[in-house]
Amino acid sequence: MKFASVRGRSALITDAGPIDVETSSGGRFGSDPQRAFDDWDAFRGWAAGASGDVVEHRPEDFGAPVPRPRQIFGVGLNYRRHAEESGLPVPTEPLVFTKFPSAVTGPRGDIALSGDTVDWEVELVVVIGREAHRVRREDAWSCVAGLTAGQDISDRTVQQAGSPPQFSLGKSFPGYAPIGPVLVTADEVADPDDLRVMTTVDGEVRQDSRTSDLVFSVAELIERLSAIVTLLPGDLIFTGTPEGVGLGHRPPVYLRAGQILGTEIEGIGAMRHVLVPR
Q: Which residues belong to any copy of the Fumarylacetoacetase-like C-terminal domain (predicted)?
């Protein structure tokens, strides 16, 4: 199943195109994409046999498939080669931070740069589908609503300020958590633990890796996070970024106004954002 927000309304993506959820379900499920996660199992059951008229749409009509998550978890240094390019040891425990929900935006549009040291970080984003606490690794995927593409856009100056530094504020400016273009259930991809992830800047490939290089897999992250906190329906987990970030260049290379940031994850789709001055 593929789920999306089209002009702010819940939509299922069929082979023919998007169909409106509220209309197609006769009002059983509403138009608000966030509310679909309130009873995701029931929603998926209905969606399996859903049909309806395709709504007119353009690529820019797609918004964040999860517009108002209650919690967003980020995981640092969760690709082996990214830890190496950062000059840091591979973590033995997940390095967890948060991105604040006000940073969420959709898969297209402008993103205002907060400064001169703003970096790109393509990430596979996990969307939680049911409340999860103390979940075992072997059961973790049953708690996942689906997967989407994301960018953990990061102001490195803000991120590294202070002693010790903190991550969350530098990663939470408006628009610094773009996700989309759709949410894809795990059964829609050949192997949800091995997906190609890419970033381009003005068409030039900057990151190109696979999620099989994750230090802590999706299931491990859910197990470890849920051992401490309660994961809620619609929560997001940004699972980490591979090597190739701007900070890893010598000298570092950062995003500039006028550039186009491209994001693509195998089986999910692509995002396109124009960087603009603050």
A: 72-275
pLDDT tens, 64-122? 999 999 999 999 999 988 888 888 888 999 999 999 999 999 999 999 999 999 999 99
Q: What is the CATH number of the domain that holds 149?
A: 3.90.850.10
Rounded CA separation 79/209 (Å): 9
DSSP structure class, residue 112: E
Question: What is the rounded CA–CA span in Å between residue 148 and residue 185?
Answer: 9
In a domain, 124, yes or no: yes
The DSSP 8-state label assigned to residue 132 in this structure reads B
Q: Which helix (H) or strand (E) holds 204?
A: strand 204-210
Is the pLDDT assigned to residue 168 strictly greater than 90?
A: yes
For 206, the token pair is 């900057």
Q: Under a CB-based contact definition with an 8 Å cutoff, are residues 243 and 210 in contact?
A: no
SS3 state at 213: helix
pLDDT, tens only, 213-231: 999 999 999 999 999 999 9
